[in-house]
Design a protein that fits this description.
The chain is α+β, with helices and mostly antiparallel strands and about 130 residues long. The chain is built from two helices and five strands.
Length: about 130
């Protein structure tokens, strides 16, 4: 009878450990699938680098300039797709528009250091002088 009791205890311990892990996995999937906000921001990418000890993500910073001569606001962002990161790197120095999704409550920085995940990039043509 003692052997059956140990098996039952091991089974319950397995359930006690598995349920929180499954709950964390479901929560992580939910916050990465559902976006709190989405939009587009335009400016000049100042830096983009692949970072992380184990989980490598592209982390960048864009200067948002509304009008020439104004102080630039910084927009930190994360890119999880290497092809999009390559497009951003190819357009450094040009004005770009980044399409992003904001995800709140991501449980770890393994998925990115910011809550702003870039999903697309396009180069914005420069406007000519004032006429």
């Amino acid at each position: 009878m003692e052997g059956a009791g140990k098996k039952s205890l091991v089974k319950w311990l397995g359930v006690i450990v598995a349920l929180p892990l499954l709950g964390l996995a479901a929560y992580t999937w939910f916050v990465l699938s559902w976006s709190f906000a989405s939009g587009e921001r335009a400016g000049y990418v100042q830096k983009l680098s692949k970072k992380g000890w184990i989980c490598k993500t592209w982390e960048g910073e864009m200067a948002l300039v509304s009008m020439p001569g104004t102080v630039a606001e910084k927009f930190p962002f994360t890119v999880r797709n290497d092809a999009i990161a390559r497009q951003i790197n190819d357009s450094i120095g040009a004005k770009v528009a980044l399409t992003y999704e904001q995800h709140l409550g991501v449980p770890t920085s393994c998925f990115g250091e910011t809550g702003y995940f870039v999903t697309a990039v396009k180069v914005v043509p420069e406007q000519g002088g004032i006429r």
